[in-house]
Write a structure and sequence with these properties.
By secondary structure, the chain is α+β, with helices and mostly antiparallel strands.
């Protein structure tokens, strides 16, 4: 067996998990030169019994100015359950420089992945932001047990390939010394 082939196979197997990576899911209207651009610092994980606040900054895409409710911008957040039905429609508190959305503690009963749409409009333009968040007991990411067998399998394969390459390297040295 050729050493280069073993090394190539080893690197090939190392990069296979990248194929199964989840692509980013946040979407906003990046394709228009006009409209409203929403900047949203979204956290991906919340505790199921915790409340949350979300701050949205709205900019005019054509000139980059910050817009507020005083300039005629109206915003709302729609939160969807896992089956796609709207469970909350939240309107912002009045502030001078951003839109502040909040929901109180114990608003949700179940852990799971929820989606949301933030929609902002004026009389002439609009913009939106779409994303996902997950409610967990701790408010932190849970390690999925579905990934564990795959990681173990590839770990064992990589170790076998490493030991095989070392064996070929050592046996090649012994054969060249004779």
């Amino acid at each position: 067996m050729d050493k280069k082939w073993v090394i190539s196979l080893f690197f090939f197997l190392m990069f296979i998990p990248a194929v199964f990576a989840v692509p980013p899911s946040d979407i906003f209207n990046i394709y228009a030169d006009k409209g409203l651009q929403l900047e949203v610092p979204v956290y991906k994980y919340y505790g199921v019994t915790d409340g949350a606040e979300l701050y949205v900054h709205v900019f005019n895409k054509s000139d980059g100015t910050l817009l507020t409710k005083h300039q005629g911008v109206n915003c709302s957040v729609e939160i969807y359950s896992t089956n796609g039905s709207i469970i909350y429609n939240i309107y912002p508190e009045n502030t001078d420089h951003d839109f502040r959305f909040s929901y109180p503690p114990n608003s949700f009963e179940d852990n799971g992945v929820y989606s949301f749409n933030i929609i902002c409009n004026t009389t002439e333009e609009g913009g939106f932001y779409t994303g996902f968040f997950e409610l967990t007991d701790s408010g932190e990411e849970k390690l999925s047990l579905q990934v564990l067998p795959i990681v173990l399998f590839f770990g064992i394969i990589c170790l076998l390939l490493l030991f095989g390459a070392l064996y070929l390297f050592i046996s090649g040295k012994k054969g060249s010394d004779e």
